Amino acid sequence: MKSFKQMTKEELQEVKAELEKQYKEAADMGLKLDMSRGKPSGKQLDLTMDMLDVLNSSSDLTSENGLDIRNYGVLDGIPEAKKIMADILEVSPDNVIVCGNASLNIMYTLISNAYTFGVLGNEPWRNQGTIKFLCPAPGYDRHFAITELFGFELITIPMTSEGPDMDLVEKYVNNDPQVKGIWTVPKYSNPQGITYSDDVVKRFAALKPAAKDFRIFWDNAYIIHDLYEDDKDELLNIFDECKKTGNENLVYEFCSTSKVTFAGAGISAVAASDENIASIKKIMGIQTIGFDKVTQMMHARYFKDINGVKAHMKKHADLLRPKFEAVLKTFEDELGELEIASWTNPKGGYFISFESMSGCAKEIVAKCKEAGVTLTGAGATFPYKKDPADTNIRIAPSYPTEEEMAQAAKLFVLCVKLVSVNKLLEQA
Amino acid sequence: MKSFKQMTKEELQEVKAELEKQYKEAADMGLKLDMSRGKPSGKQLDLTMDMLDVLNSSSDLTSENGLDIRNYGVLDGIPEAKKIMADILEVSPDNVIVCGNASLNIMYTLISNAYTFGVLGNEPWRNQGTIKFLCPAPGYDRHFAITELFGFELITIPMTSEGPDMDLVEKYVNNDPQVKGIWTVPKYSNPQGITYSDDVVKRFAALKPAAKDFRIFWDNAYIIHDLYEDDKDELLNIFDECKKTGNENLVYEFCSTSKVTFAGAGISAVAASDENIASIKKIMGIQTIGFDKVTQMMHARYFKDINGVKAHMKKHADLLRPKFEAVLKTFEDELGELEIASWTNPKGGYFISFESMSGCAKEIVAKCKEAGVTLTGAGATFPYKKDPADTNIRIAPSYPTEEEMAQAAKLFVLCVKLVSVNKLLEQA
Asked: Which of A181, A314, B203, B348 could form a disulfide with B188 if both were Cys (CB 3.0 to 4.6 A apart)?
């Protein structure tokens, strides 16, 4: 198909008429599909069902260190679970605390602790005036929502193909003591699927923050979520790099099994330096009695070790890959030559990031919704849910079936074309 | 045996010599017993082992409302779990949020929310100067620790046999706007096993707080933890009473299955008014993705309904009752006539509260520890861990076996006698 940008007004109007006809037909199909969140599909969840057979009434529920895991006790996780989460993150189990099902809740807690009690003996953030937080965008809406709740000033950092714009990050972090943190998803970032380059990771580790209590929130949510066994992105270990720069206190790292086992019922972990871990545990001992060790044991015995986890992830990849490829093929086939959009080709993670023409994203999402396909709200990937150019749309291909995915992708490209044609006609 | 108080100095010295001999023998036995926390015993935990058979790889993990509980979704709990927790608390499921394994963490979160964001639109506590919190004592050390962490001023409210001294509670709450909350364990209180009388509950519901953002933390941890089927304490439903006084926003109520199923791996719940629940959920939606619904479903299908829970609690009572009775019999037999101590006779809960002579508790606990029996630290049941009279010791009979319990109780009364004799000789 000819590029929309090369078309005359008359050609565009012709295309528009045809697209409107197609849209009406599509809307009449009564689709009802949800691509709004990065939810695993039913088939993916089925992969883990046999984890429920691991523990039963005859199980010995004693952990390696002799603890009856059914009872109270142990704040930082049973050794079996600590080992697996530490191996996922490639850190020492001593630097890991295994928590409940939602890693987001640990992130919230660490922000809340910093706000109320301060970081490692520093003045609490609440007493330090306006706190600024860097938000590489497009990024993860739930990250931004936490820091927005606390009333921090959210500063958008543009993403490059190698990660956040580090010139800007360094400028803010190294000069402004009000900048206290940055959100990151360093591997297969949400929503672009970008993995931070070695240079970006090294520059993070080499930051010289103006604030003593600055922290990098390194949300490694997709650390083992590769789509292609023979073509994985490689991310440098941030703690290895921080050791070299003497900056080990700079980072809180997070991961979970939410997209490994059951999305709502996995285990999560935070990794940090010795000093940070000691400080987190001190407050955690007052915040809770401890996390669910039966669920931890179920996970540990199911996987046995990191190899078990990795083998499991290949099965997820086998289910996810065709969906990603189907969406990307539809985009390529239908939009490839039109010059009205671009998109990422991630090798892992849960999302494809789509860029429409300026000022079109909101309307594309609205058009899709009208015809029965729910997408993540346009703007959601930016601080305050405001995408300044109104171009970014997060595509989450994991949840629908392959057939539904094909229908949804077709509707989506149709809406993209229709909204873009309208925009071009406006401008003509 | 003759009352110590009636003895001459010479008689006391004679007793002392004999007790010291006995203590040396006991210490040589090399006991290693832990009665420091209210932990269920292994046998109690065994009662729930078949809960692990309820879910397996063939289970349908769809909840009543059609939700795939393995996936993301639902903040306030699956309907099956909400129903059971609501029935335990005798409130509507609409007024319940089912949370993770530790109810303490919900309490912490609500304190933290009030501090940071304020209660129902009121100014955050952090901006209101010195916050005061009422702490009926002896009470639960982990409650007090939360409010101490936030730097609140903890005000000790003496306990009576009917509950907290309500004259004092009313005086503080109804007059001082800095008083923002009170900790309570209204049934089988920790550590005294006191159940608040109807009059006390009604006076709580009729409070007219000077602070609009005052809240009662109604920790109903032992609501179904009766020892005697035919001799249960009855506690009025606080929400029923608050309806009558138009004070429904005044109370946050908590419970958990920590001492019903697995201590470290149960489910918990908070109950509150419509307005409070809506406000809690609003922030909770940013704090977490949701709680572990697989564990919720495991509990719900295991118990089926409130009757299943109650039947289960009878089995716990059968294991706990002999231990309580053995301790109380030892106290009665060995200390009954000595006029050096008193203790409570609870009909439920997890503790017996022991009162030594003034200034003796710390030393009794130290003496026990020296001979291999760890008790809750003396003072722990008071704000700032400071028992002004140094008399209160919390006895937790649940964890040791019956045989260990007998040994521990014997050593304990021996230490009580020895320390009391020394005190009387000092005073003689």
From this structure: B348
